[in-house]
Amino acid sequence: MLPKTFLWGGATAANQCEGGYQLNGKGLSIVDVERASINKQKRAIDNCVVPNIYYPSHEAIDFFHHYAEDIALFAEMGFKCYRFSIAWSRIFPRGDELTPNEAGLQFYDRIFAELKKYNIQPIVTLSHYEMPLALVEEYDSWRNRQLIEFFTRFCEVVMKRYKDDVTYWLTFNEINATVEVPRPWHQAGLIYREDEDQYQVSLQASHHMLVASAQVVALGRRINPQFQFGCMLLYPVFYPLTPSPKDTVAVHERLSYVYYYGDVHVKGRYTHTCQAIWQRHGITLKIEPEDEQILRSGTVDFIGLSYYFSLAVGIDGSSSEGNLIVGNKNPYLETTQWGWQIDATGLRVALNNLYDRYETPLFIVENGLGAVDEISTDGMIHDAYRIAYIDAHIEAMQQAILIDHVGVIGYTTWGCIDLVSASTGEMSKRYGFIYVDVDDKGQGTKKRIKKDSFTWYQHLIMTNGAEITERLFNPE
Fold this sequence. Notes:
Elements: E1 7-11, H1 14-17, H2 63-77, E2 81-85, H3 88-91, H4 102-117, E3 121-127, H5 133-139, H6 146-161, E4 168-172, H7 177-180, H8 185-188, H9 198-223, E5 228-234, E6 237-240, H10 245-267, H11 272-281, H12 291-297, E7 302-306, E8 310-313, E9 320-322, E10 325-327, E11 334-335, E12 341-342, H13 344-358, E13 362-366, H14 384-403, E14 408-414, E15 434-436, E16 448-450, H15 452-462, H16 466-473
Parallel strand pairs: 1-2, 1-14, 2-3, 3-4, 4-5, 5-7, 6-8, 7-13, 13-14
Antiparallel strand pairs: 9-10, 11-12, 15-16
Helix pairs in contact: 2-4, 6-9, 9-12, 13-14
């Protein structure tokens, strides 16, 4: 059986669910100028809010006004924890102010009060694709070392305000997306210029983010020694496309870009894996004398990870894309409506890979199925496909924990309530146990409807996954 302390719950991000993009003094974030995709193309980015253009983040599902209703539904499902982010631009509208926006903090005061009422433990992400837009326009984003100071100030305000409310913190969501994806706008606010070496820019920006993360961890421990800090990695499993030894080397090289970030967060230094990447791309980082000590002093207590799919990697072969990561189709796997390959076993592989390398507790903070949900004639959403997906992944997680002895402290499904897709800006790509009546143009009543998966997950949490455990050890 899983331990009684195991943390079951769900996860969201402020920019994908809150809305209220100009309320209570909030400034513009980078996502507030990002349009929804059209015909599955890349989302267009504007340099300001253009009149009469639909921006999905501006209202999203209006969690800003529905938070009490939504948290009550999470409590009804039995959530032990809820992972969410605090929008940087709601606390520091431009990002570089000296004084925080009190109205923004008061909004989160109300969130924490609701969670406390239901004994739901908050898991707080400090940066989840929500950089203030002014930091891009005036400071060139994380290219600029000054952002370390600005981010640390934001985190200090938040950690002091909620030092008695939060145990688990994540610094940067999917930090390896800075270098892993072709367009790292969400993570680091970067749009490459024609004359730039993309690896040089992204890894220098990453260095500033890694120093900021370590500085925040060290600061947080002084604020409250009971705080537990985690990094958060986008972890796609890679398989060799063929039995060719060269394809196996290709897998090693692809994973090295994930471990680059994990190594610095967990080991507090740039390892041989990091140095190999520098050499591969001819990178020379500007590292200040104090940075090495900062990295050593701010190592994390656990590793958070998102896992959705796996990809095949080889020297040759056609490429596809899943969650912005490019790879090849695996003929042994089914594919979702958005081209992501479903591989529950891959989660077991991911957990073992990370635990073997780091021997550090793991927290699955994102896992879920994006799919089109239809309201049936009975007014319900019968999402058996989502139940099957999550059931299979939880079984794989339990195999890792109970058979492989991997240390996993919790599991939060992504988009426990429907929200705006980060990759496409759509609402039709739904993940939640709770349906929200909003369409891809932002139209709808915003009514909340429980899906079949709501009751299924409620039972799973209530029994601590016992039925899956029983099936695992006593198959028919």
